[in-house]
Design a protein that fits this description.
This protein has helices spanning 18-36, 44-50, 61-76, 86-91, 106-113, 142-159, 253-277, 298-301; strands spanning 5-9, 57-58, 121-125, 128-132, 165-169, 172-176, 185-190, 199-205, 209-214, 219-222, 225-228, 231-232, 237-238, 243-250, 281-288, 291-296. It is of the alpha+beta class and 309 residues long. The strands form five sheets. Strands 1-5-6-9-14-15-16 form a seven-stranded antiparallel beta sheet. A three-stranded antiparallel beta sheet has the order 2-4-3, with helices on one face. Strands 7-8 form a two-stranded antiparallel sheet. Strand 7 (185-190) and strand 8 (199-205) form a beta hairpin. Helix 1 packs antiparallel against helix 6, helix 3 runs parallel beside helix 7 and helix 6 crosses helix 7 (253-277). The model has no long low-confidence stretch (mean pLDDT 93).
């Protein structure tokens, strides 16, 4: 999935071999990669995207599960989250085809936007299949797939007899149980800086997930201006504004990951209003010159730990 993974667990009474456990995790992630990758031409998602058929196409249960969850979240966020944004991802140079040297034209954006719309991707569970309502529709699950993968690795560790664990895939974290000292897992959130920053705040997690979305590391510079990789499906352009990053705590990592993306798309004002109204545990990092201000929802404060040590 273009990133790294880490898994920590407390050794249960029946000892788990770390090497064998690592191999099982890697094997599970390889299966998911083969399902969700937009970079592998033979992945399940790539084959679906390449098809011009509007008939149902058989798909793995995990891919269908994620498509259904994506539809629920698109409806919930009124389209701010939308996995059918794939044509725009490619147009702006963030897809497998790589990056160009010129800005997309208005006509190109309009053409790509015509293929974007979460209702154009349908899914069924029995038998598991995906369907597009127009031949050019394609999906990119990058904003939610790593979160699902973190959830599934968490489930795998619990099934192996290690309920107390910490899983991280890229910027997505899923925890189970408690840390070695019997307390919650203390997890730092960095300041959103391109080359890494100091720890801005710490959350205490015990069974919850944490995800962060921002444009501070994955971007392209065109005509002297920087454009981030998080695209607004409603405008066809990269999300813009003073918002640097959003972090969300939720019960599942698939949902925390998608919500962080949606809140970033909504922006500092509408995003904070939405998170407050829907009681989402979120912290917004807003550019303030060379530093950042934080806006936290009351629900996020419940997970706020002591200052970093």
């Amino acid at each position: 999935m273009g990133t790294t993974w880490t898994a920590k667990f407390l050794q249960p009474a029946a000892s788990l071999d770390p090497v064998a456990t690592s191999e099982k995790i890697a094997a599970r992630l390889e299966v998911l990669e083969q399902q969700f990758s937009t970079y592998r031409q033979n992945s399940d998602l790539s084959r679906f995207n390449a098809s011009a058929s509007t008939d149902g196409i058989a798909a793995p249960p995990e891919l269908v599960q994620l498509a259904l969850e994506a539809r629920r979240l698109s409806d919930f966020t009124d389209g701010a989250f939308d996995v059918t944004v794939a044509p725009l991802v490619c147009l702006w140079g963030f897809g497998p085809q790589g990056r160009g040297n010129t800005l997309p034209t208005e006509s190109e954006i309009t053409e790509a936007r015509a293929l974007v719309g979460w209702r154009q991707l349908e899914a069924r569970t029995s038998p598991p299949a995906l369907r597009k309502t127009a031949g050019g529709v394609s999906a990119d699950f990058s904003s939610i797939a790593k979160g699902l993968a973190s959830d599934l690795i968490s489930e795998l560790l619990a099934a192996l007899g290690a309920p107390d664990h910490f899983v991280q895939i890229g910027g997505d974290v899923r925890t189970g149980g408690h840390a070695a000292d019997g307390t919650a897992w203390r997890t730092g959130i960095e300041e959103p800086r391109e080359n890494g920053g100091t720890i801005a705040c710490v959350v205490a997690l015990s069974g919850q997930a944490l995800s962060t979305s921002g444009n501070y590391r994955n971007f392209v510079t065109l005509d002297g201006r920087r454009y981030g990789h998080i695209l607004d499906p409603r405008t066809g352009r990269p999300a813009a504004g003073a918002l640097a990053a959003v972090s969300v705590v939720h019960a599942t990592c698939a949902r925390s990951s998608a919500l962080a993306t949606a809140l970033f798309v909504l922006g500092e004002d509408a995003g904070l209003a939405f998170a407050t109204r829907e009681k989402i545990a979120a912290v917004f990092f807003i550019h303030a010159g060379d530093s950042f201000t934080q806006h936290r929802t009351p629900e996020f404060e419940e997970f706020s730990s002591s200052r970093p040590r």
